[in-house]
Inverse folding.
């Protein structure tokens, strides 16, 4: 993934050139991780550029900021408009969307309250997160030696910059050991999530996913899969899952805005099912992308269309 340096970044109500989108080195977020963010996608669909579940992503951004006592001067609707304006200003038919609310430059101590609350929106082109063929062929993963945070230490329901220091440790360990990704356990030793993805397992045609109490982010794609699976007649259970469920599952897959729906073909070098994308993951992928591309009706109003110039598409 490489950034373009010719685009625009929205910062506190102003669109600025990409090289000029800077902050002071004394900003609180740099030293203490005091920021919350979102990751959403805009897809180039047959009916035009469409953001997937943008309202839900922006609601989670505002919720995360509230948990961390960072009240920004613009409300959710205005921040959503800022995202749409940034996409149009960059002329991208499809892109990844990164809004961030953070503590800026004023004072440096553990107490963040004296620092101003700032916001920005970045967008860029980003393809398959875990590899070009991952959606079809799956990925090899391991169980991480790093544990997700215990309850009442960090708020797992907030998508916080500080929380992702743990994600970085999980991801680096996996990559350095030759895996695409890792799965973390929680403090109780049950399954939690990947470094930046929620987790589903299939056993006897039943879908299982760790509950929010397992130190997982309430993923928008996770929720979409639960909705789609119910519409397709599958049973979904949210419950604590022991590590060994990974090894005896018929299918395992990640989901998330970046990963979309990515099958897992092995865990700790143990083949999952047939060692390739399973039928339920494939069916959910089809349902997911059919909803995005308008093949099936958008009955849940998940798509927000953006007026991107035709030339960009």
């Amino acid at each position: 993934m490489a950034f373009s340096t010719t685009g625009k970044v929205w910062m506190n109500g102003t669109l600025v050139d990409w090289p000029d989108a800077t902050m002071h080195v004394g900003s609180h977020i740099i030293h203490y991780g005091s920021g919350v963010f979102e990751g959403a996608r805009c897809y180039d669909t047959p009916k035009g550029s469409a953001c997937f579940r943008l309202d839900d992503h922006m609601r989670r951004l505002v919720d995360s900021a509230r948990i961390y006592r960072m009240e920004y001067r613009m409300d959710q609707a205005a921040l959503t408009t800022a995202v749409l304006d940034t996409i149009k200003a960059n002329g991208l038919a499809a892109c990844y969307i990164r809004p961030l609310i953070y503590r800026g430059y004023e004072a440096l101590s553990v107490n963040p309250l004296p620092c101003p609350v700032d916001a920005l929106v970045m967008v860029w082109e980003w393809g398959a997160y875990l590899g070009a063929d991952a959606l079809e062929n799956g990925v090899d993963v391991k169980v991480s030696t790093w544990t997700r945070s215990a309850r009442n230490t960090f708020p797992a329901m907030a998508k916080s910059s500080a929380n992702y220091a743990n994600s970085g440790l999980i991801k680096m360990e996996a990559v350095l050991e030759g895996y695409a990704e890792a799965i973390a356990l929680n403090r109780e030793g049950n399954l939690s999530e990947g470094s930046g993805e929620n987790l589903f397992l299939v056993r006897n045609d039943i879908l299982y996913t760790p509950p929010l109490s397992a130190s997982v982010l309430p993923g928008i794609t996770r929720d979409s899969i639960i909705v789609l699976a119910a519409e397709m007649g599958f049973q979904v259970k949210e419950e604590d899952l022991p590590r060994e469920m990974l090894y005896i599952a018929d299918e395992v897959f990640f989901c998330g805005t970046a990963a979309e729906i990515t099958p897992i073909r092995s865990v700790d070098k143990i083949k999952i099912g047939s060692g390739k994308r399973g039928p339920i993951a494939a069916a959910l992928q089809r349902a997911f992308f059919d909803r995005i591309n308008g093949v099936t009706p958008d009955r849940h109003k998940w798509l927000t269309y953006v007026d991107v110039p035709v030339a960009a598409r």
Summary: The first strand starts at residue 8 and ends at 11. The CA atoms of residues 63 and 158 lie 7 Å apart. The chain has eight helices and 17 strands. The chain has a mean pLDDT of 95.
